[in-house]
Write a structure and sequence with these properties.
2-enoyl-CoA Hydratase, Chain A, domain 1, seven-stranded mixed β-sheet, 20 strands, alpha/beta, Rossmann fold, six-stranded mixed β-sheet
């Protein structure tokens, strides 16, 4: 059943526009797509966590895995997740506190426990920022050597565990291989995350991540949100198999705890599962399918998307810059589909955002360099990756900024730029309505328009007055399955 509502020409539609909203009059024939109802919140999150720990899926309980002399690592998703702001206390705070009490009951001394934020090539987070997801009490009770962010450039902490059958190198933190028990605490608000990605990406290195987080010229357009068909997901799970095989030599398995947040603001916890990674993640995916996916009959000529920080993980505790706007548009808004895109091949996407030329120079120095050094020369994602990725990944100043200055990894903006490659190949035109800086918009690959009405008028001029139009009412984000 299609989840959309009718529209009349007299109605004004409230559309996300950066940190605010604007009102626009959409054509009467516009299909307004709405997210499914959110899953209900759990009445008692702590109790749900305890029950999940007591009855893990296809895994021994913690009581059989840890003891007084064993070393335990608890890794957790970084503050980028969930995308919607969570209700306090955060699921990670609640769960880790329960885990610490359980480990204490089982005789594990505090000095044998470390907490690791699995930030991969995202920026590291200050103690104050980690307190937004862990709470001040938890942050203050662990010293910086016991509560740390993963460092993908710390050569002394990275170990190679092998290669996948197709020859992809798998490197992970030594916490994965040398801890007597690794526990992972996850917040899964979308199909893209969770499962083996938490380990094979979140606790990995640039050398390993660059093999799948890069533009592929022959990409077939299977969205990473299409969990059963995505090539990216297949690669990640192949890497997970390599990690699992290495741990099996020592008689160990990772114990994961995954949660599914509700799809409303503030996000609460709707489900908790614990145990073996494949079994747990299968349950998570079932819940996400229920909460996020709507069915739509047929593709459209034109689709309209308002862009908001509540759709972008990377601007958490900062603000969106033009490269993040481009990624939110082409990777997230356009890429939220299963099967085939909402917009037909050669169709037009109209994104709505002011897109000012503004950058956080502490957290995004390599983004600024890319904007000023690379993009005036070329905007081709494949050329950019081939020519500049190793330079940006290994520049001493970018490595220093990533390791010690809470900045995104040098290669991160190039990764995001490449993720928009398929959308640009598929679409005929990409418009940005409400653009306040037309030059910045053009540099991002957008054709700027002052208003939504002007963007729609140009789409109708190019595709005909009767072209089909859909508006995806986000946030909250949802996934479109086109029949």
């Amino acid at each position: 059943m299609e989840n959309w509502v009718g529209h009349t020409a007299q109605e004004l539609t409230r559309i996300a526009y950066g940190t605010g909203f604007l009102e626009a009059r959409l054509p009467e024939r516009t299909k307004i797509l709405k997210p499914p109802p959110s899953l209900p919140a759990l009445p008692d999150v702590a109790e749900a966590v305890k029950q999940a720990l007591d009855s893990p899926l296809n895994h021994e309980p913690l009581s059989k895995l840890v003891g007084p002399k064993l070393k335990v690592a608890i890794a957790f998703d970084d503050p980028c997740m969930p995308i919607l702001p969570p209700k306090q206390p955060d699921f990670r705070e609640t769960t880790i506190k329960i885990l610490l009490r359980e480990l204490e009951r089982l005789g594990v001394p505090r000095h044998n426990i470390q907490l690791i934020c699995a930030n991969a090539l995202h920026r590291k987070w200050t103690q104050r920022e980690l307190a937004t997801i862990l709470g001040e009490e938890l942050v203050l009770s662990f010293g910086p050597h016991r509560l740390r962010c993963h460092d993908a450039e710390d050569k002394d902490d990275i170990v190679c565990v092998g290669e996948t059958p197709r020859g992809m190198l798998v490197e992970v933190s030594k916490a994965v291989t040398e801890s007597d028990q690794l526990i992972y605490v996850n917040v899964n608000s979308q199909h893209f995350n969770g499962g083996w990605k938490s380990i094979a990406v979140g606790l990995s290195s640039y050398n390993s991540i660059r093999q799948h987080h890069r533009p592929f010229p022959r990409a077939s357009g299977k969205s990473v949100m299409d969990y059963r068909r995505s090539s990216f997901q297949k690669i990640i799970w192949e890497m997970g198999d390599v990690v699992a095989a290495e741990l099996a030599k020592k008689g160990r398995r990772i114990f994961t705890i995954e949660s599914v947040p509700t799809n409303r603001i503030p996000a609460e916890t709707a489900a908790v599962f614990a145990g073996n990674i494949p079994d747990v993640h299968e349950k998570t995916i079932e819940m996400l399918q229920r909460q996020l996916v709507i069915e739509v009959r047929g593709q459209v000529d034109v689709a309209i998307f308002g862009l908001s920080p509540h759709m972008d993980p990377y601007s958490k505790l900062s603000f969106m810059n033009p490269i993040l706007v481009r990624n939110t548009a082409l990777s997230y808004a356009f890429g939220l589909y299963q099967g085939k895109p909402l917009i037909r091949e050669g169709g037009i996407a109209i994104f709505i955002h002011p897109c000012p030329r503004a950058f956080d120079d502490i957290r995004f120095p390599s983004y600024i360099a890319m904007y000023e050094e690379i993009l005036p020369r070329t905007q081709d994602p494949f050329e950019i990756w081939d020519v500049y990725s190793e330079d940006y990944a290994h520049r001493p100043e970018f490595i220093h900024h990533y390791r010690y200055r809470y900045s995104y990894h040098g290669a991160h903006p190039l990764i995001l730029w490449g993720q928009g490659a398929y959308a640009l190949r598929h679409l005929g035109k990409v418009f940005l309505a409400g653009a306040q800086d037309p030059d910045a918009a053009r540099l991002m690959g957008f054709e700027p328009f002052p208003t939504v009405a002007e963007a729609i008028a140009e789409a109708e001029r190019l595709l005909g007055k009767d072209c089909s139009i859909a508006y995806a009412s986000m946030p909250p984000a949802f996934i479109i399955s086109v029949e």
